Amino acid sequence: MIPLASLFGRPPPAVGQTPSDVVFAENKWRLLRYRAWHEGTAWATPVLLVPSLINRHYVLDLLPGKSFVEWFVARGHDVFCIDWGTPGDEDRYLTFDDVCDRYLGRALERTRRIAGAPKAHVLGYCLGGTLAAIHASVHPERFASLTALAAPIGFHDGGLLSAWTRSKGFDVQAVVAATGNVPWQLMQSAFHLLRPTLTLSKAVHMADKLWDDEFMNGFLALETWGSDNVSFPGACYQRYVDELYRNNALVAGTFTLSGKPARLEAITCPTLAVTFQHDNIVPPESAAVLLERIGSADKHRIHLPGGHVGAVVSKKAAQGLWPAIAKFWADRD
Amino acid sequence: MNPWDIYKKAFNAWENATATYMEQVLKSPLLLEPAGAWLSTMMKAKAKGDELAAGWWGGLGLPTKRDQERTLHKLNQLESKLLDLEERLAADK
After folding, report:
1. pLDDT in tens, A169-210
2. Contact, A279 vs A307, CB < 8 A?
3. Given A81, A126, A236, A269, which residue is catalytic?
4. Most buried among A80, A297, B9, B66, by the most CB within 10 A?
5. In this predicted complex, what is the ipTM?
């Protein structure tokens, strides 16, 4: 009972602690550059992290000791990250092209320019990976490599999100017309429904670990992140659902970015796709299809046990996934 | 095996079975069609309500929320276009 009671007095976990500077800002998004470790940077090519539009970027910098960013900075990488920020009501008109072409292109350009490198390694997580892959298919010359971390590419995957967005009764235009930006509450409810028993399951398994401070810190940090979502800019969401989910346009080769065809076969840079066995948000087959379609001969897949988030920020990730990504970048520096 | 472990084992079995069952239910068109239609109806009603309110507000000659959103968006677009130009100039140097 005592550990359970102590939960109420526990301060919220301090997330996103790796020191960084805002090196560029436009509308609501910012480009962060993490401060170099004492020894400075050891690699010629900078790294740009592209998180999902609807989640906070600090999932990649969760807690000291459990931070993807901290781990890479400590190994001499020059790490930049996009913080998409919180859309205002006026951003209901923000289009997919604004985000995926203009903003992402600008982030890449600034990363490259600030680091003084001709190209950058780009890692996109979840929807950030989809954005990065689309951008790479139109501007392949900007990428030293592409890492798609649990990134949905094929949207007709048999998962629940695919079934819901493709249901005839779901009128995406009506939702966007009524709400402007699609409220995070609506999306969070949908994510909860992917496994409605998960909250109960977490409570039961947490009971075993109540006295384990390190576990509880990590658990609460993830819960903090999981409840800290942002709304999806309306016009961008409408195209995302209409073209990517409903028409599977990326796989069909019919998607366009700012009027230019976005064909996956145009991706010629070294590409790494990371998929997770128990990912119920992005089923492994949805992410793996990227490698079947791209034109690059230098393509690799890492398939790991675990779920969409846990497998990226767990202690295990620091022993398996992160070193594998580091090696992929080091071999192509 | 202690009672807690037995409980957890049973709970895991129940949780797995329930989650699988729920997934089938939540994928079923029998549920999705009416749920989607209900959501769309509510959204259309909200949009209609907003439209009526904006019409009344606009009738007084005042800018509506949508007018303000459009103006702010245009300002953001202008900022972006200036940055585009700046980048082109930097690239030409």
Report:
1. 899 999 999 999 999 999 999 888 888 898 888 888 888 888
2. yes
3. A126
4. A80
5. 0.89
